[in-house]
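It is worth pausing here to work through a concrete case rather than discussing structure prediction in the abstract. The textbook approach is simple: state the sequence, then state the predicted structure, then interpret. We follow exactly that order.
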Amino acid sequence: MTSDTRARCPWCGTDPVYVVYHDCEWGVPERDGRALFEKLVLDGFQAGLSWITILKKRQNFRRVFDGFDPERLARWSDAEVARAMADPGIVRHRGKIEAAVGNAQAWLAVQDRYDFTEFLWQFVGGEPIVNRFATAAEVPAQTVQSQQMSRALRQAGFRFCGPVITYAFMQATGMVNDHLTCCFRHGQV
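Step two, the predicted structure:
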């Protein structure tokens, strides 16, 4: 077995789950509205936790949250919330679970007026912002664009979408390319 010695962003470390996420998903432009909804909800669950915690539970979240189908999730009753609270395969935080339901309702309301993908991508002018950071210390926790996105999402009824969460979301979904310049993925995405 050979060792992969390509230079990567230091945040992914050597955990195989994190490395695959970094190499194959993080920073790749996502334009599917349902996939963007899932990622936004999962980033909300990350608040106060590490992303690896959420990433390792992602399949359980998909199972519990009806595949992140906004139409199904928006109709959840107290019984479904209680079922999710009892499932040890996810992060059992009532506020975040209830926010996911409310976010599904907000997604439907936005989708009635706009295309959700276009609604989100407008904050970067429809194209990824390509940063050229050499070190992790240069990468901001939030930007003007993430502040604007956060404000618009909250006005639309979304929760757990502050400017730090929305910036992490923008990085993950390729709205912003924050792979370090020394990372082999920087030029690829």
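Step three, interpretation. The chain has a mean pLDDT of 96. Residues 126 and 144 are 16 Å apart (CA to CA).
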